[in-house]
Design brief:
single chain; alpha+beta; 5-stranded mixed β-sheet; 4 helices; globular
Length: 144
Amino acid sequence: MNIRRAEPKDLTKIQQCNLHNLPENYHMKYWAYSFITWPEVSYLAEDSSGRVVGYVLSSIEPDEEYPWLQVGHVNSLSVLRTYRRLGLAKRLMLLSKKAMIDSYNIEYIQLHVRKSNRAAFSLYSEKLGFKIHRKEVGYCKPVT
């Protein structure tokens, strides 16, 4: 297993992993924008054949209340089912966190998680020490 910083050449492989695992899918334009704008903060895990089996897509943005402060944002984290429970998501998150701190001197990291995603809550709260800041009513509800 190889874990490394994601590069623009990896976009289609990362998007395939995303499409396979998650109901929310970013357009290729957003992936490209993220890799060009914040190249240091997104990582991937690939198997021995070079297939992307997990990734974290992160970005940097201003704090809502204090816009002069930099905030890390995890936009998407995914690991293929057959590679889960190996610590890949935690390793990807820790690499991204370190890069956000070292490169952008962020104040904190934010992310969104579906209330029903117990595995994600366990990863973020128990293994990585994240705290719930607020609950967003209607987050990830289908638009009708």
